Amino acid sequence: MAEARRPSLLVTLIATALGAGFAPVAPGTAGTALAVPLAWGAAHLGEAGYLLVLVAVTAFGIWAADLYEEATGAKDNQRIVIDEVAGYLLTVAAVSRGPFNLVVGFGLFRLFDAWKPWPVRWLERLPGGLGVVLDDLGAGVYGAVILVVLDRLDVVRMLSSSLGAQL
Predict the structure, then answer these.
(1) Long-range contacts for 52-61 (Cβ within 8 Å, ≥24 apart)?
(2) Residue 26: pLDDT above 60?
(3) d(Cα 6, Cα 26) in Å, to the nearest integer?
(4) Which among 13, 19, 67, 83 has most CB atoms closer than 10 A?
(5) pLDDT class for 118, splitting at 50, 70, 90?
(6) What's the mean pLDDT when you consider all of the chain?
(7) pTM for this prediction
(8) Are 12 and 80 a contacting pair, CB within 8 Å?
(9) Domain segments of the chain: what residues?
(10) If we measure between CA atoms, which residue out of 118, 108, 120 comes closest to residue 150?
(11) 95-106, pLDDT tens digit by residue?
């Protein structure tokens, strides 16, 4: 195994999602939380713009995660949370990015990221940054499917109407 060294600042900023990965508790949740305003903001770019952001986060995330792992010598280092950002962006990609979809998507993504149902757990075994990011994209697919079903059944709208009437 290579000697651990400090990754470059650019690699660190990308891999740790601007430092969210340095959160002392639940860095993955911190990385996902950072993705919520990014998803909301990217929604204003239109669907093509949103897709471009998702692809860029994924591509740069794979690159940075790979270099961060190589530099630190730690497989899927806990500080790497750009994968959570990519996975969350995928979770909410096929629905409107209003407050309730963003919150429900957050919960669904965290659930599937922690659970890692098949083949998500298998994806994390892929080498380097590819494995780091693809398992979270797999969790994002599961979250997206459930969120789309809830959205199509108007569950999120009904909940928001019900909760809004009570507030």
Answers:
(1) 53/89, 54/86, 54/89, 54/90, 54/93, 57/82, 57/85, 57/86, 57/89, 58/86, 58/133, 58/137, 60/14, 61/14, 61/15, 61/85, 61/86, 61/129, 61/132, 61/133
(2) yes
(3) 22
(4) 83
(5) very high
(6) 93
(7) 0.92
(8) no
(9) 9-166
(10) 108
(11) 999 998 999 999
pLDDT at 166: 57
| 85 contacts: CB under 8 Å, gap ≥ 6 | 17, 31, 32, 34, 35, 38, 57, 61
Tell me the two tokens of residue 148: 């789309």
Which run of H or E residues covers position 67?
helix 46-72
| Distance of alpha carbon 129 from alpha carbon 127, whole angstroms | 7
- Looking at residue 165, its pLDDT comes to 59
Q: Which of 57, 27, 25 is nearest to 41 (CA)?
A: 57
- Per this entry, what is the length of the chain? 167
Structure tokens at 65: 């995660």
Tell how far CA 101 is from the center of its chain.
Answer: 15
156 pLDDT above the threshold of 90: no
